[in-house]
Amino acid sequence: MAEYCHYYVNNNPQVVTGNHEVHKNICLSLAMAESKSYLGFFDNCEDAIAKARTIYTKVEKCHFCCYEYKESFF
Q1: CA 7, CA 44: separation in Å to the nearest integer?
Q2: Would you say the pTM of this structure is higher than 0.70?
Q3: Residue 70 C-alpha from the chain's centroid
Q4: DSSP, res 17
Q5: Cβ(9)–Cβ(55) under 8 Å?
Q6: CA distance to 14, 22, 23, 51, per residue, from 5 (Å)
Q7: Residue 70's closest CA among 48, 50, 45, 51?
Q8: Which of 10, 12, 20, 55 is the most interior residue, by most CB within 10 Å?
Q9: Could you report the per-residue pLDDT of 6-20, keeping only the tens digit for each?
Q10: What pLDDT, in 10s, does the model give residues 38-61?
Q11: Can you say how many angstroms the Cα of residue 38 is from the centroid of all Cα atoms in its chain?
């Protein structure tokens, strides 16, 4: 059964990769983000990443909270 969560994207890209990370609302890494945008309420990280790609070209999952999403998208 899918678990719905609120998802956000960090507005500041990662220094090394230049990617914007997608996080669940419960993620500790999200709490440290200085600037973030709300993506919506989704039942999976894949849909949240697709939404984030409408805002930013370079997007990646948070490896701590979106571990269930396996696709590599660098």
Answers
A1: 9
A2: yes
A3: 13
A4: T
A5: yes
A6: 23, 12, 10, 14
A7: 45
A8: 10
A9: 999 999 999 999 999
A10: 999 999 999 999 999 999 999 999
A11: 10
